[in-house]
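=== RUN LOG ===
request id: a7f3
mode: sequence -> structure
chains: 1
length: 172
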Amino acid sequence: MEFYFPPLLSSRVLAIQQSLTIDLNHPGQLMIDTCLRTFRMNLQWTKTSTNSLDAVLLNIYNSVLFCGRKAMILNKEIGSRSSHALCPPFMVKLAMQMVPCVLHSSPSTAPKHQIVWLTLYGFKMAYTKQKAQYHAAIQDLQTHLGSLKCRQQTSLLQAIASWEKEHRLIAC
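=== RESULT ===
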């Protein structure tokens, strides 16, 4: 008697297959799932015992910025393949839904209000690549950023964001 065992697919193969599959029936859920899978952080850079808080916050910002840019690219592809690209209010909702994920992944020593501010600021900076299409989303995110009580640390966080911009750590 002979048994046949199908080959097991590695998690990498499954991740590639999932990233290639686009279900246009639920584009919003597709966008949320893709962003959650995209948001990966280097765990070696999130330990504040071996890295400075600035380095940890910079890594969080880079991960969020990459996630926002990938969401824009996916939204462009969804819009070209169907008649309904996701509207700017959904893109703001997507940024707000990523905040708990970022808070969960970040170290407990980093202040929560700084992480929330960096998450929203990262999505805002990602959307500024196409200002005309995402103008309403940028304005909504700016309103949310203004309502956060992070005024004392704003200069520090903007310095981190400008340092990243000068050194061009993100290659998208």
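=== NOTES ===
Residues 25-167 form one domain.
The radius of gyration is 18 Å.
=== END ===
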